[in-house]
């Protein structure tokens, strides 16, 4: 009896401790604070998975409790010997079908969301995406705007309400590009280009980071994405084009050397120093257009 009392006392303190733990979080969890259509789709998938898993957990614990109470050893059944039963076809069918149903219920929305993320968001599919090459290096991020002819380091600006087509690559070790409030991560790999579509619904500042350990400077691989109105974005592009220095090949090689650097802006980009033939495009649309 004493052991039971201690157990229930500890169990009653668990919700309180969880409440106090969550009370220490003064900021929203980024992945649960979607600020764009891609992030919203992935957020809905997370919530659906949590609800489904919660239902399963509740059902399992209810069944466990019922069986534990109903079939426990009691004074009146101390001498009871259960009959020798070799399987139950109905039960075996049930516990085989239910896991299949659960997998299907998780797989269908997951596959749909995965394929949807490989193209511009449905809401803005008629708007031309802004193309930005994202190059990870030890331990910084380079953002090249081929159409605007500019480049930034460790920060980037984008127009709100417009899809962004990120082309991810790397100089050196593999990394992972992630802006939690705008969508899931994707890998940056040396010699390869991976497409990632994201979009910010409204102006604001969003923190991006590396999601793949890459050495001692890994924790410094954070950057800021600022979504601006269309007018403010165009004004910023013109300002960089007119006031920032050109990015020379020597300066580019200096930047990608292992080390931590601050924010930089250039009125040209390093793409002209990279041989496109050396890059393998992991993008279905690229090959389709080539044909």
Secondary-structure topology with pairs:
Elements: H1 2-23, H2 37-70, H3 89-116, E1 130-137, E2 140-145, E3 150-153, E4 155-159, E5 164-170, E6 175-179, E7 183-188, E8 192-198, E9 204-210, E10 222-228, H4 230-243, H5 249-255, E11 264-266, E12 280-282, H6 284-290
Parallel strand pairs: 1-5, 4-10, 8-12
Antiparallel strand pairs: 1-2, 2-3, 3-11, 5-8, 6-7, 6-9, 9-10
Helix pairs in contact: 2-3
Structure keywords:
291 residues; alpha+beta; Helix Hairpins; Immunoglobulin-like; 5-stranded mixed sheet; 12 strands; 38% helix; 23% strand; elongated; membrane
In total, the number of domains comes to 2
Largest sheet: 7 strands, mixed
Number of helices: 6
Spell the H/E element sequence: HHHEEEEEEEEEEHHEEH
Tell me the name of the CATH class of the largest domain.
Mainly Beta
> What class do helices, strands and sheet pairing give?
alpha+beta
Determine the N-to-C terminus distance. 77 Å
Principal-axis shape: elongated
Based on CA atoms alone, the radius of gyration comes out at: 27 Å
Strand proportion: 15-25%
- Could you list the spans in which at least 5 consecutive residues all have pLDDT below 50? 284-288
Protein name: Quinol oxidase subunit 2
Domain Cytochrome oxidase subunit II transmembrane region profile: 23-121
Function: Catalyzes quinol oxidation with the concomitant reduction of oxygen to water. Subunit II transfers the electrons from a quinol to the binuclear center of the catalytic subunit I.
Pfam families: COX2_TM (PF02790)
């Amino acid at each position: 009896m004493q052991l039971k009392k201690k157990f229930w006392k500890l169990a009653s303190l668990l919700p309180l401790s969880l409440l106090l733990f969550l009370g220490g979080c003064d900021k929203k969890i980024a992945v649960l604070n979607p600020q764009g259509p891609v992030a919203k789709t992935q957020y809905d998938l997370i919530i659906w998975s949590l609800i489904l898993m919660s239902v399963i957990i509740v059902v399992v614990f209810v069944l466990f409790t019922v069986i534990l109470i109903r079939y426990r050893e009691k004074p009146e059944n101390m001498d009871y010997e259960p009959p020798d039963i070799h399987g139950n076809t109905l039960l075996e069918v049930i516990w085989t079908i239910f896991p299949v149903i659960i997998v299907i219920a998780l797989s269908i929305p997951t596959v749909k969301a995965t394929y949807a993320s490989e193209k511009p968001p449905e809401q803005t599919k008629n708007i031309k995406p802004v193309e930005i090459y994202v190059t990870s290096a030890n331990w910084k991020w380079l953002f090249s705007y081929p159409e605007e002819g500019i480049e930034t380091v460790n920060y980037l600006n984008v127009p709100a309400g417009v899809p962004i087509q990120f082309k991810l690559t790397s100089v050196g070790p593999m990394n992972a590009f992630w802006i939690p409030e705008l969508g899931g991560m994707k890998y940056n790999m040396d010699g390869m280009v991976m497409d990632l579509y994201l979009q910010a619904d409204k102006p604001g500042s969003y923190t991006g980071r590396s999601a793949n350990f890459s050495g001692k400077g890994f924790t410094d691989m954070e950057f800021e994405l600022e979504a601006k109105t269309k007018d403010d974005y165009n004004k910023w592009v013109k300002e960089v084009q007119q006031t920032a220095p050109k990015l020379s090949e020597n300066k580019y090689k200096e930047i990608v050397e292992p080390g931590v650097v601050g924010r930089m802006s250039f009125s040209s980009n390093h793409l002209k120093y990279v041989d496109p033939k050396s890059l393998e495009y992991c993008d279905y649309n690229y090959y389709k257009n080539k044909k």
